[in-house]
């Protein structure tokens, strides 16, 4: 059984994230979609809210497990018995950052592979930060995030 881990802050989960989740879920027996808790990062949504949105957005994928962790990605992968870290790429800027992260993870544990998946063209500009900015200015993000996420964003900003 091959297990993989896809990590992020998912604040909030976007359709770009879901694209990676859907494709990776077809490649691996179990895919852990794990919210990584970074104490240096300020998030709009609590960990519990993000987990709830991820569960709702991924309920059609039976082999996806939603979790949270404050460990390093390779440590978490070891904990759950995963052999692969999945990372999504949008553009060359992502590649530069992600390749450094990959090399760091290789240094920490050469037994855990990193697999990069390019996002679909339609999602190359989509980021959680841009989505939050758009909603904060009273614009729709329909098509950029799942409907359940758009509702939560509207509640946060227009509450």
Indicate the topology:
Layout: E1 3-8, H1 15-27, E2 30-36, H2 47-57, E3 64-69, H3 73-80, E4 84-89, H4 92-108, E5 113-118, H5 128-136, H6 147-158
Parallel strand pairs: 1-2, 1-4, 2-3, 4-5
Structure, explained:
Helix 4 (92-108) links the parallel strand 4 (84-89) and strand 5 (113-118). This protein has one domain (3-158): HUPs (Rossmann fold, 3-Layer(aba) Sandwich). It is of the alpha/beta class. It has helices at residues 15-27, 47-57, 73-80, 92-108, 128-136, 147-158, and strands at 3-8, 30-36, 64-69, 84-89, 113-118. A five-stranded parallel sheet has the order 3-2-1-4-5, sandwiched between helices.
List keywords for this structure.
159 residues; Rossmann fold; 5 strands; 6 helices
The residue ranges in which pLDDT falls below 50 over 5 or more consecutive positions are none
Number of strands: 5
- What sequence of helices (H) and strands (E) makes up the elements? EHEHEHEHEHH
Radius of gyration: 15 Å
Could you give a short description of this structure?
The chain is an alpha/beta fold and 159 residues long. The protein has one domain (3-158): 3-Layer(aba) Sandwich (Rossmann fold), CATH 3.40.50.
